[in-house]
């Protein structure tokens, strides 16, 4: 089954609750929350308070929290306490990835790893049996609204070839025109921001993707 995980980065910041409520009416059950620190990526977004607010307003939604941060280990407790169901960090970190995954498991939080477009999938191999989620970035992380880099799609099939069977997500420029290509390569979760929150016909967009 394909999961659509709308990225709240594309929601109207002054009407985020209303925007989220609107998309949930069409069967969405997962939200993607990008946390950016202006160091690991050249942008700054939210903190644990936004996760806590969304958790309070929408208690039954799966919160997929993506930490694009230099030092995520310092904040894992805070995001877990705020209500994150899944926390994804980057394999490119200088921090001890094994320690982070152990920490996530101890908190009963889904453990995810993400790779940037230029990072080879081999970087994930030491951790595959400990992961609940892998997130392939199909744009250079940092800003929403970018076009998908087609060459990143092959990473999905490469990861599946390694034997990984859990959630495989892709994020960056995914829309109704290219979602099928990602699914064909092995993705079963599509992080979509602009394509969902800015859709002219939201119902049609979601139904088209769910039918793939």
SSE topology sketch:
Blueprint: E1 3-6, H1 16-24, E2 30-36, H2 48-57, E3 62-68, H3 76-82, E4 86-90, H4 97-106, E5 110-115, E6 133-137, H5 154-161, E7 167-171, H6 179-184, E8 189-192, H7 194-197, H8 202-210
Helix pairs in contact: 2-3
Structure description:
Strand 4, helix 4 and strand 5 form a beta-alpha-beta unit. The protein is of the alpha/beta class. Helix content is 30%, strand content 20%. It contains 8 helices and 8 strands. The model has no long low-confidence stretch (mean pLDDT 94). The longest helix has 10 residues, at 48-57. The chain has an 8-stranded parallel beta sheet with strand order 1-8-7-6-5-4-3-2.
Major sheet: 8 strands, parallel
Shape descriptor: globular
Strand order of the largest sheet: 1-8-7-6-5-4-3-2
* C-alpha end-to-end distance: 10 Å
Sketch the topology as an H/E string, one letter per element.
EHEHEHEHEEHEHEHH
Count of alpha and pi helical runs: 8
In total, the number of strands is 8
> Over the alpha carbons, how many angstroms does the gyration radius reach?
16 Å
Content-based structural category? alpha/beta
Mean pLDDT: 94
Helical fraction: 25-40%
